[in-house]
Design a protein that fits this description.
137 residues; mainly alpha; Multidrug-efflux Transporter Regulator, Chain: A, Domain 2; two-stranded antiparallel sheet; 4 strands; 69% helix; 6% strand
Amino acid sequence: MKSGTQIQYTAGSLAKAAGVNIQTVRFYDREGILGPHGRTEAGYRIYNQEGLKQLKFIQEAKGLGFTLAEIKELLGLRVRSVQCCDRIRKKTEQKLVDIQVKIRQLQRLERTLKKLVQNCNDRIVSEQCPILARMEG
């Protein structure tokens, strides 16, 4: 939908343009991290080009592992990005540390699961499953 030179989107057309489900747009709207530009006479939410940009930003930040609360804060900083670059960098550095911790945890989990599978493969036929035995006790 066009208004002058400004492209406007309904929730459905915004979702389609960003490659997300309409429920995603509605959810972000309810969470207060994506707001409509206005409303039609019939009461439908209308989003502009900035809304599309914001939705794509949310999706990208989510893909980088940021939580919705962190994304909401980043969006607030994005508006004042010139003054807030250091804060955004620090938040991103912290997110990197968080992800590195998760990677180490997942690697430990992987080693444990591999060992359990190997124990199962190596076992002498018995009635007790080594994997269940490990989990039980």
